[in-house]
Amino acid sequence: MGCLGRTPEAEVVVTTKYQEQNIPIQERPKAVQFPPVDWFVITEENLEEKIAEINSKTGNVVVFAITPKGYENLALGIAELRRYVKDQQAIIAYYEEAITPAEPMGDSSSSNNQ
Question: What is the pTM of this model?
Fold first, then answer.
Protein backbone atom coordinates (compact mmCIF):
# COMPACT_ATOMS: atom_id res chain seq x y z
CA MET A 1 0.00 0.00 0.00
CA GLY A 2 2.89 2.32 0.54
CA CYS A 3 3.67 2.43 -3.17
CA LEU A 4 0.23 3.56 -4.22
CA GLY A 5 0.68 7.01 -2.70
CA ARG A 6 3.89 7.83 -4.60
CA THR A 7 3.79 9.76 -7.81
CA PRO A 8 5.07 7.77 -10.75
CA GLU A 9 8.56 8.60 -11.97
CA ALA A 10 8.80 10.65 -15.13
CA GLU A 11 9.35 8.73 -18.32
CA VAL A 12 12.94 8.84 -19.54
CA VAL A 13 13.25 9.86 -23.18
CA VAL A 14 16.58 9.32 -24.93
CA THR A 15 17.25 11.46 -27.98
CA THR A 16 20.27 11.69 -30.22
CA LYS A 17 21.37 15.11 -31.32
CA TYR A 18 23.88 15.41 -34.14
CA GLN A 19 26.17 18.39 -33.94
CA GLU A 20 27.90 19.69 -37.05
CA GLN A 21 31.60 20.35 -36.74
CA ASN A 22 32.49 23.99 -37.06
CA ILE A 23 36.02 23.75 -38.44
CA PRO A 24 36.86 26.55 -40.87
CA ILE A 25 38.53 25.47 -44.09
CA GLN A 26 41.82 27.27 -44.44
CA GLU A 27 42.98 29.00 -47.59
CA ARG A 28 45.36 26.95 -49.72
CA PRO A 29 48.98 28.10 -49.70
CA LYS A 30 50.28 30.16 -52.58
CA ALA A 31 51.60 28.07 -55.47
CA VAL A 32 55.34 27.52 -55.68
CA GLN A 33 56.99 29.67 -58.33
CA PHE A 34 60.51 28.65 -59.28
CA PRO A 35 62.69 31.41 -60.65
CA PRO A 36 64.30 30.64 -64.01
CA VAL A 37 67.54 28.66 -64.05
CA ASP A 38 70.04 28.80 -66.91
CA TRP A 39 71.37 25.36 -67.80
CA PHE A 40 74.52 24.88 -69.83
CA VAL A 41 75.63 21.52 -71.11
CA ILE A 42 79.40 21.59 -71.06
CA THR A 43 81.47 19.00 -72.84
CA GLU A 44 85.17 18.77 -73.56
CA GLU A 45 84.50 20.18 -77.04
CA ASN A 46 82.63 23.33 -75.92
CA LEU A 47 84.33 23.97 -72.55
CA GLU A 48 86.22 27.16 -73.56
CA GLU A 49 83.22 28.57 -75.46
CA LYS A 50 80.77 28.03 -72.57
CA ILE A 51 83.17 29.45 -69.97
CA ALA A 52 83.51 32.61 -72.10
CA GLU A 53 79.69 32.78 -72.52
CA ILE A 54 79.06 32.42 -68.78
CA ASN A 55 81.79 34.94 -67.94
CA SER A 56 80.28 37.51 -70.34
CA LYS A 57 76.79 37.06 -68.79
CA THR A 58 77.69 37.11 -65.09
CA GLY A 59 81.26 38.31 -64.77
CA ASN A 60 82.31 35.20 -62.89
CA VAL A 61 82.34 31.51 -63.63
CA VAL A 62 81.15 28.80 -61.26
CA VAL A 63 80.56 25.34 -62.59
CA PHE A 64 78.49 22.66 -60.89
CA ALA A 65 78.89 19.19 -62.32
CA ILE A 66 76.56 16.25 -62.15
CA THR A 67 76.88 12.81 -63.67
CA PRO A 68 74.16 11.44 -65.97
CA LYS A 69 73.18 8.99 -63.19
CA GLY A 70 73.09 11.89 -60.70
CA TYR A 71 70.82 13.83 -63.06
CA GLU A 72 68.55 10.79 -63.36
CA ASN A 73 68.41 10.52 -59.55
CA LEU A 74 67.62 14.24 -59.31
CA ALA A 75 64.71 13.80 -61.75
CA LEU A 76 63.44 10.78 -59.79
CA GLY A 77 63.67 12.76 -56.54
CA ILE A 78 61.66 15.64 -58.01
CA ALA A 79 59.05 13.17 -59.28
CA GLU A 80 58.86 11.66 -55.79
CA LEU A 81 58.42 15.15 -54.31
CA ARG A 82 55.56 15.85 -56.75
CA ARG A 83 53.91 12.54 -55.78
CA TYR A 84 54.20 13.41 -52.10
CA VAL A 85 52.59 16.84 -52.63
CA LYS A 86 49.73 15.31 -54.63
CA ASP A 87 49.15 12.72 -51.89
CA GLN A 88 49.05 15.50 -49.29
CA GLN A 89 46.56 17.44 -51.43
CA ALA A 90 44.33 14.36 -51.65
CA ILE A 91 44.40 13.92 -47.88
CA ILE A 92 43.52 17.60 -47.35
CA ALA A 93 40.68 17.37 -49.88
CA TYR A 94 39.34 14.27 -48.10
CA TYR A 95 39.17 16.06 -44.75
CA GLU A 96 37.72 19.22 -46.27
CA GLU A 97 34.96 17.14 -47.86
CA ALA A 98 34.38 15.30 -44.58
CA ILE A 99 33.69 18.51 -42.67
CA THR A 100 31.69 20.25 -45.41
CA PRO A 101 28.00 20.17 -44.48
CA ALA A 102 25.89 17.96 -46.72
CA GLU A 103 22.86 19.32 -48.52
CA PRO A 104 19.54 18.35 -46.90
CA MET A 105 17.80 15.53 -48.76
CA GLY A 106 14.68 17.61 -49.46
CA ASP A 107 16.53 20.38 -51.29
CA SER A 108 18.30 18.21 -53.84
CA SER A 109 15.31 15.95 -54.62
CA SER A 110 12.94 18.87 -55.27
CA SER A 111 15.35 20.46 -57.75
CA ASN A 112 15.75 17.16 -59.61
CA ASN A 113 11.99 16.92 -60.24
CA GLN A 114 11.86 20.20 -62.13
Answer: 0.54
The helix (run of H) or strand (run of E) holding residue 110 is helix 105-112
pLDDT digits over 62-80, tens only? 888 888 899 999 999 999 9
Contact 53, 40 (CB under 8 A): yes
**48: pLDDT confidence band, cut at 50, 70 and 90?**
very high
| Gyration radius of the chain over CA positions | 34
DSSP 4: T
Give the burial class of 51: count Cβ atoms within 10 A of its Cβ; 0-12 exposed, 13-18 middle, 19 or more buried: middle
Query: Which class for 85: exposed (0-12), middle (13-18), buried (19 or more C-beta within 10 A)?
Result: exposed
Q: Which amino acid is at 34?
A: F
- 3-class SS of residue 75: helix
Domain boundaries, the chain: 36-65, 66-100
